[in-house]
Design goal:
Layout (H helix, E strand, L loop, with lengths): L8 H5 L10 H14 L15 H14 L6 E7 L3 E7 L3 E4 L13 E4 L12 E7 L2 H4 L4 H16 L2
Antiparallel strand pairs: 1-2, 1-5, 2-3, 3-4
Helix pairs in contact: 3-5
Length: about 160
């Protein structure tokens, strides 16, 4: 299986802050931000978290990149029960930002250490592809919109 999108060694060097359990505050604020964006029919995140796993993961990975955190890898899996789905992984943690579209009564998103007992949910998926939101995504027409949302999110954090 061919995976693509690995960041260049130069790009990896700028990611010095690790994702850890202290990142939960950022995740909670980002989730609330996307919930508000999801109310607008013209938004990339319309109906967030429903059917927005790819753009939400792209947004979150882009935000962490912008503040010099380690690179987050997107994982695309397929499941007979749930269909296609995208989530993120760092070296040590998994973040599934749109988990609640499948299991709405438990928790908004999944955030767990990869070495701990993982939730059963991701066992439903066969990994189809994975990579980084690197250079190949910069040509995508959604890229400027994602960066605009990252910038807007950063501004909301600095005004609170």
């Amino acid at each position: 299986m061919k995976f693509f999108g690995d960041p260049s060694p130069n790009k990896k060097a700028i990611f010095d802050t690790k994702i850890d359990f202290n990142s939960i505050t950022i995740l909670e604020k980002a989730y609330a931000f996307l919930e508000l964006k999801g109310l607008s029919k013209s938004s990339l995140f319309y109906k967030f978290p429903i059917e927005t796993c790819f753009v939400s993961s792209w947004f979150l990975a882009s935000y962490f990149t912008s503040i010099k955190y380690e690179a987050l890898q997107w994982i695309f899996g397929n499941s007979e029960k749930y269909g296609g789905h995208v989530w993120l992984e760092s070296k040590d943690y998994t973040i599934d930002f749109t988990y609640s579209q499948f299991e709405p009564i438990s928790t908004k998103f999944l955030f767990y250490k990869n070495t701990s007992a993982k939730p059963y949910f991701h066992d439903h998926f066969t990994i189809v592809d994975k990579g980084y939101f690197g250079d190949s995504f910069e040509k995508n027409k959604k890229h400027p919109l994602i960066l605009q949302m990252v910038d807007e999110f950063q501004k909301t954090l600095s005004t609170k």
